[in-house]
Amino acid sequence: MEYKITVKKFFGHLHTVNKHRFKVLCLCCRVGIPFQGLVHDLSKYSPEEFWESVKYFQGSYSPIRNCKQTEGYSKAWLHHKGRNKHHYEYWSDLHAPEPHPVMPFKYFLELVCDSYAAGKVYCGKGWTESYQEDYWKKTRGDKYLNPKMVKLLDEVYANGTKYGLKKILKKKYLKKLYDKYIKED
């Protein structure tokens, strides 16, 4: 498949980013971090991220996937994960005593909001509250993530399916889960 920048892809990607950011803002407000929601993913408008994403845009999943399949890597992703603390990859340092540390709570909150918003945007009307858990189960083995964070996200997504987002996207509830898994030995 040939990838190129077109006007249609430009506006399609711009719309997708704006829609995603708005959904993240709404969810972040729900969990008590409105400023993080407001500034969420601003780097997606930078030339490094935006133009590559326009080139590989198709609308039903992240254009970064197409770029990685074609090029073997994505400059946009490398740029993005290095500037956005809600991505667990931001916290990885293979030469540190703890190569995959636990991310701080406020970024964990944003991560959860981000993942649910991404599912809602890419699935559209086909989105269900079980989508994120299903997606997580398919991809969790690919992640270089602290085992405590894996257990925490397992429960968050399972409870999202079981109880719904309105019940689980609450700061107190998520803090209780975070402390349960992060403080365990």
Secondary-structure element order, as H and E?
HHHHHHHHHH
Secondary structure category: mainly alpha
Low-confidence stretches: none
Number of strands: 0
For the largest beta-sheet, the strand count, sense and barrel status come to: none
Radius of gyration: 16 Å
How many discrete domains? 1
Helix content: 55-70%
> What is the average per-residue confidence, as pLDDT, rounded to a whole number?
95
Distance between the termini: 49 Å
Count of DSSP H/I helices: 10
β-sheet strand percentage: under 5%
Q: What general form does the structure show?
A: globular
What descriptive keywords fit this protein?
single chain; 185 residues; mainly alpha; 10 helices; globular
Write structural notes for this entry.
The chain is mainly α and 185 residues long. It has one domain (7-182). Helices cover 63% and strands 0% of the residues. The protein has ten helices and no strands. It has helices spanning 7-30, 34-39, 47-56, 63-71, 75-81, 105-123, 131-139, 147-163, 165-168, 171-182. Helix 1 crosses helix 3, helix 3 (47-56) packs across helix 4 (63-71) and helix 8 (147-163) packs antiparallel against helix 10 (171-182). The longest helix is centred in the N-terminal third of the chain and has 24 residues, at 7-30. It is globular and about 50 Å long. The termini are far apart. The mean pLDDT is 95.
